[in-house]
């Protein structure tokens, strides 16, 4: 606690041998951050400049990749600064901002994947109505809602956390996630219920909707022609893989507070880094390789001489 400025500082206690390997950590994470920005930005650029990719499905993919960059930018700059600092600290207020951004963008990811699932359902199961249903207005509403709804729902718990008395000042992590609750002197039942409602709204309900939608798509596709089944597999499988991957990583984050005492410090660090290291790189690789039209434009961009 800085009494002069009335600012509470928290220490990140999740780093492993940072004094010994600070430059190794910095080079590795900085390289990964640049790769995340470049790989996601390339695909967003391709979707932006090619008119045949100006369709709802590709617009949602672009939004998902932009979300990945924003998500990474919430964590990486502070993490890189910490690697080069003698003390890995953050003010309580800044930690709450990072907490809010982290979970808002994670929630946006689930809602964007839900919008993509609905888009695929209409495209495959109601192709004649697709242009009417998935209009520019509908797409815009989905995009705004995906980013706005989680952010608005997380304002209250973030503001309430700012008023809570802290009994600990060392975070068992390398960035501000739900481990911030472990610093509070009292964790009320009301806060737990409120957080469960938010989790239900921004994660569990979208996941159930996505699973239901894709089940309907695969059932209808199975009864349809071979061409419809092929289209369903090509366009839905990447979305489903991304969903499963992100859901598993988020499950780590949700359970880590309750089980943190059972994990060695190194294991907790690895688990914490998975969601910010693996997933933002996974998205552009998955969509770049598995989405036929995007893959075609990538080949033209990087290997123009080989494309006739």
TrEMBL record:
It is found in: Cell membrane. It is a multi-pass membrane protein. Keywords: Cell membrane, Disulfide bond, G-protein coupled receptor, Glycoprotein, Membrane, Olfaction, Receptor, Sensory transduction, Transducer, Transmembrane, Transmembrane helix. Coiled coil: none annotated. InterPro entries: GPCR1_Superfamily_Member, GPCR_Rhodpsn, GPCR_Rhodpsn_7TM, Olfact_rcpt. The keyword Ligase does not apply. Gene3D superfamilies: Rhodopsin 7-helix transmembrane proteins (1.20.1070.10). One of its GO terms (molecular function) is odorant binding. Residues 39-287 form the G-protein coupled receptors family 1 profile domain. GO terms for cellular component: plasma membrane. The chain crosses the membrane at residues 23-48, 57-76, 96-118, 139-156, 198-219, 240-259, 271-289. Its main location: membrane. Belongs to the G-protein coupled receptor 1 family. This is Olfactory receptor. It comes from Larimichthys crocea (Large yellow croaker).
């Amino acid at each position: 606690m800085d009494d002069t400025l009335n600012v509470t500082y928290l220490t990140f206690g999740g780093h492993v041998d940072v004094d010994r390997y600070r430059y190794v950590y910095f080079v590795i994470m900085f390289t990964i951050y640049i790769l995340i920005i470049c790989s996601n930005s390339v695909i967003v650029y391709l979707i932006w400049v090619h008119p045949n990719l100006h369709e709802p499905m590709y617009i949602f993919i672009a939004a998902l990749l932009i979300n990945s960059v924003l998500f990474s930018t919430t964590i990486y700059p502070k993490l890189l600064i910490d690697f080069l600092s003698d003390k890995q600290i953050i003010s309580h207020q800044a930690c709450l901002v990072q907490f809010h951004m982290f979970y808002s963008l994670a929630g946006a990811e689930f809602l964007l994947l839900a919008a993509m699932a609905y888009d695929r359902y209409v495209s495959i199961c109601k192709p004649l109505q697709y242009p009417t249903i998935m209009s520019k207005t509908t797409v815009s509403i989905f995009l705004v809602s995906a980013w706005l709804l989680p952010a608005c729902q997380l304002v209250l718990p973030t503001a309430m956390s700012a008023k809570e008395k802290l009994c600990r000042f060392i975070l068992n992590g390398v960035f501000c996630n739900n481990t911030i609750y472990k610093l509070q002197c009292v964790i009320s039942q009301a806060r737990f219920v409120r957080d469960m409602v938010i989790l239900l709204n921004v994660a569990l309900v979208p996941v159930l909707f996505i699973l239901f939608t894709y089940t309907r798509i695969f059932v209808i596709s199975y009864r349809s022609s071979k061409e419809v089944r092929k289209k369903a597999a090509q366009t839905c499988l990447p979305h489903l893989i991304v969903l499963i991957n992100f859901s598993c990583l988020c499950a780590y984050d949700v359970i880590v507070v309750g089980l943190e005492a059972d994990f060695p410090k190194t294991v907790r660090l690895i688990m914490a880094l998975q969601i910010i290291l693996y997933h933002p790189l996974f998205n552009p690789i998955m969509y770049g390789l598995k989405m036929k039209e995007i893959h075609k434009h990538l080949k033209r961009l990087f290997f123009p001489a080989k494309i006739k």
